[in-house]
Amino acid sequence: MNEDVHQGVDEDHPEKRGTPVGRRVFLGTLALGAAGVVAAPPLQRGLEGFLGSAADKDPTGLTGLLPNGGGFRYYSVASSVPRKNADSYRLTVDGLVDRPTTYTLADLRALPQTRLVRDVQCVTGWRVPDTPFEGVRLSRLLDAARVRPTAKAIRFTCFDGTYTESLTLAQARRADVLVALRMQDKDLGHSHGGPVRLYVAPMYFYKSAKWLSGITVTDEVRPGYWEERGYDVDAWVGRSNGRDDEPTS
Ligand SMILES: Nc1nc2c(c(=O)[nH]1)N[C@H]1C(S)=C(S)[C@@H](COP(=O)(O)O)O[C@H]1N2
Ligand SMILES: [Mo]
Q1: How far is it, in rounded angstroms, from Cα 37 to Cα 51?
Q2: pLDDT tens by residue, 48-69
Q3: Distance from the CA of 205 to the center of ligand 2, in angstroms?
Q4: How far apart are alpha carbons 244 and 78 in whole angstroms?
Q5: Separation of 124 CA from ligand 2 center, angstroms?
Q6: Which ligand has its closest atom nearest to the C-alpha of 190?
Q7: For residues 236 and 203, is the Cβ–Cβ distance under 8 A?
Q8: What is the full DSSP assignment across 75-143?
Q9: Counting atoms of ligand 1 from 1, which one is nearest the CA of 27?
Q10: CATH homologous superfamily for 91-229?
């Protein structure tokens, strides 16, 4: 099976077979250039329209092993995603805050930028070492919004209309969590979730929601898209999803 495919819940982690969702989950790949593609059955039709016949031509997924995007696989659970630019992009911060705020891209660019260089790690196994991300610390946006004392968590929404993510408030306030505007020292392109995506450096890359449009402060964690399908909510690299660095038993 193509290693691009997020089938890890069942195939790589048989211990997770009894998850509440209890069905096979796949993560569809948004193919660009030579990237290999295998789509989940429910997504197949939408993706085929989007990809042309790329999936049919590569049943083995071997082309996914060819160089592409500097080692990245491109993922989207939505079959098509609108493009947003400096004119049309908006990021809303709302929920349990005293100052709900809407940011334009220019607003975000005008705030202090933080650059982090870390390894990107997808839970399926692919990894891109030493990848620079740059943007505004999420903690800064939360402070500006004046988070209320009852707040416990953040829900992230995306302008693809489908994907969601979550963090606890404590996780969201870490210095290595960014609202990212740049990746690999370039403005974030559409396929990587531009113009703005979340970047949660210490966690598997599924936490890093692409096409970020909403940051809602909530009173409890609401599991995100992949988390409702069996992946861990606390997605620390090497310490979640059955990939413990140091097994304790
Ligand atoms: N909106 C959205 N964000 C998303 C995803 C997605 O399908 N939709 N996939 C996640 C997963 S599983 C991974 S590995 C990364 C992939 O990011 P990339 O396409 O820039 O490589 O985005 C994450 N964020
Ligand atoms: Mo992923």
Answers
A1: 9
A2: 233 333 333 333 343 444 445 5
A3: 5
A4: 30
A5: 6
A6: 1
A7: yes
A8: B-SSS------TTT--EEEEESBSS-EEE-HHHHHHSPPEEEEEEEE-TTS-EEEEEEEEEEEHHHHHH
A9: 12
A10: Oxidoreductase, molybdopterin-binding domain (3.90.420.10)
Per-residue pLDDT of 90-131, as tens digits, reads: 999 999 999 999 999 999 999 999 999 999 999 988 899 999
Token reading at 173: 């306030």
Integer Cα distance of 95 and 166 in angstroms: 14
Note the Cα 108 to chain centre separation in Å: 19
* Ligand 1 pocket list (CB less than 6 A): 27, 72-77, 122, 158, 160, 163, 192-193, 205-206, 208-211
Q: Kindly give the distance from the C-alpha atom of residue 186 to the centroid of ligand 2, in angstroms, as a whole number.
A: 21
Q: Whose CA is nearest to atom 16 of ligand 1?
A: 75
What's CA 92's distance to the chain center, in Å?
18
pTM reported for the whole predicted model: 0.77
Mutational test site, ligand 1, from 75, 77, 184, 229, max ligand atoms within 8 Å of CB: 75
